[in-house]
Amino acid sequence: MKPTVIMVGADKGGVGKTTTCRALLDHLARKKIPARAFDTENPRGTLKRFYPDITEVIDLNSVADQMKILDTLESAAVKVTIVDLKAGNLSPALDTFDRIGVLEAARHGLFDLGLIHVVGPSVASLDEIGEISGYIKGINYVIARNFINETNFFEWDEKTFKKYFANLPDAAEIDIPKLNEMAYEQVDLAGVTFSDFFDNRDAGGKDASFSFVLRGYVRKWIKDLDGEFSHLSLLHNLGDVAQEKIEKPKVMASQGAKK
Amino acid sequence: MHIICSDEARNGKTIFARLYAELLRLGADHLPRIIDTDHPDGTIVRYFPNTCDIIDLSRTDGQIRLFDTIIENPHLDHVIDLEAHHLKRFFSIFEDIDYDRAASLAGMGVAVFFFLDRTLASIQAAIALRKRLTSSQFVLVRNDAIGVYRPPAYGERELFRIDMDRQIRLPSLPTDLLDFVEDPEFNLSDFILQRPHNLPDWLSDELWTILEAIYEQQPIGTAETMLSASTLQARAP
Questions:
Q1: How far is B65 from chain A (nearest CA, A)?
Q2: B9: closest CA of chain A, how far (Å)
Q3: In what order do the strands lie in the sheet with A112-119?
Q4: How does pLDDT run across B179-213, given as a tens digit for each residue?
Q5: C-beta separation of B36 from B44 below 8 A
Q6: Over the stretch B208-229, which tens digit does the pLDDT of each residue have?
Q7: A213 to B60: CB separation less than 8 angstroms, yes or no
Q8: By the 8 A CB rule, do B40 and B56 touch?
Q9: Which terminus of chain A is more solvent-facing, meaning fewer CB atoms within 10 Å of its CB: N or C?
Q10: Is the dihedral of CA A146, A199, A197, A117 positive or negative?
Q11: In which residue ranges of chain A is pLDDT below 70?
Q12: What integer pLDDT is reported at residue B151 of this predicted model?
């Protein structure tokens, strides 16, 4: 099996990229799949606050930081890499990866590359789907519809809905269900993972006293999300990654970067 | 935790919740904590102003006040007078947060008293609710006061097949008696303990008869004693 890189991003801000990253890391941890994460919200990364031990804050515009991700795919003990792209950085990141040959290397099967594109219920957000279509050929492209509020994704307007979602070749779709606002805030305040919150453990691993109701909301949300993630072929073989011999990627940022 | 509920309003939930709370007081020598979900004005709070909380279940903080407080005090009795319009919300949360299991782990019993109304929709609501419960007890309550019960036979037959722990049939209270009982000044505990009360003798006898009729209903395995259920059992294929 090959190393796997999963980018989570969007060009629009506030659509839930980091929440999706956290949910994904949580999901992998529950499945006992080791992962490492790169938070590109430089210099202050939100993801690192929740996963300090496995997250590194990087600047994706820096070649040295690109190397931290790409040149370590083989040598890293952990073979699953999650990259949380900061707001507005999806298209530039894809452009960079295209220029340095990362997308091409993935298309040739040197490693598995996935993109979870988080979209919110707005035309501006949905228009990004078309804007990045030139990059996604041959990679695992997932559209994550984040139900931030009680809205839907223009399902009431068939023409608009079809425009964005009816013709998505080679794209998987998942829905990020809405999490109760107070539950979300409490997890945020506690600075713990969703699983730890549900298990009533604080950031230090000690017993906490989180609300039973809020833990219940998080538990339901996690369960629903696990159901969504379970549809993704991108994640199906990850459990075997750690045991398999890794084939060396031929394209490295240090060799191909042109800035 | 005793949940008094229905899919319809005005079918006797509050009067039953009140009677039930009074009976619990007689057994424990103190009133249970009573929860009124008729926010903001309250209904049952008129009868228990000192031991009743009005909770807004539409808000998360209200849900926390209800569910968290109860699970933190599993040794105390709680009677919840659940407004009909909160039925789906309450049990949706109840199911989402796996409260049945948590209550069981905490050593707390949960009993759901569902007041069956006269519609097929009410039967369907009872069946749907029963399916959502895992370890909670389910008690079906029929109140004679809401009138003749004539649902389509197939609905009643489905209802009879669900797993219920108990059925209770409430005799109808005559209007004169209802006026007295609904008065917040009237105290059921005083009446049962034969302390001085303001009920005339002829109504007092009638209330005793009704309370005995309720009390004498067997707590378990009473389905065969209920007229409609036994009739349907005989008719069932």
A1: 9
A2: 26
A3: A55-57, A36-39, A80-84, A4-9, A112-119, A140-146, A171-176
A4: 999 999 888 888 888 888 888 888 999 999 988 88
A5: yes
A6: 998 888 877 755 433 333 322 2
A7: yes
A8: yes
A9: C
A10: negative
A11: 1, 148-151, 153, 155-156, 167-169, 239-259
A12: 61
- Count how many residues are written for chain B: 237
Find how far residue B90's CA is from the centre of its chain. Answer: 15
Interchain CB distance below 8 Å, B60 and A212: no
Contact criterion met (CB < 8 Å) for A216 and B97? yes
Interaxial angle between packed helices A212-229 and B87-96, expressed in degrees from 0 to 180 and rounded to the nearest 10 = 70
Interface test with B, best of A180, A187, A211 (most B CBs within 10 A): A211
CB contact under 8 A, B93 and A219: no
Q: Does A216 touch chain B (CB under 8 A)?
A: yes
DSSP string over A151-191? --SSTTSHHHHHHHHT--TTEEEEEEPPPPHHHHHHHHHHT
Cis amide leading into A52 (omega within 30): no
- Res A41: pLDDT: 87
Chain A hits for B103, CB-CB cut-off 8 Å, are none
| Consecutive H or E run containing B227 | helix B227-235
Find the mean pLDDT for residues B137-155.
80
pLDDT per residue as tens digits for the range B37-86: 999 999 999 999 999 999 999 999 999 999 999 999 999 999 999 999 99
Distances (CA, A) of B90 to B65, B81, B116: 13, 12, 17
Whole-angstrom distance, CA of residue A45 vs CA of residue A58: 9
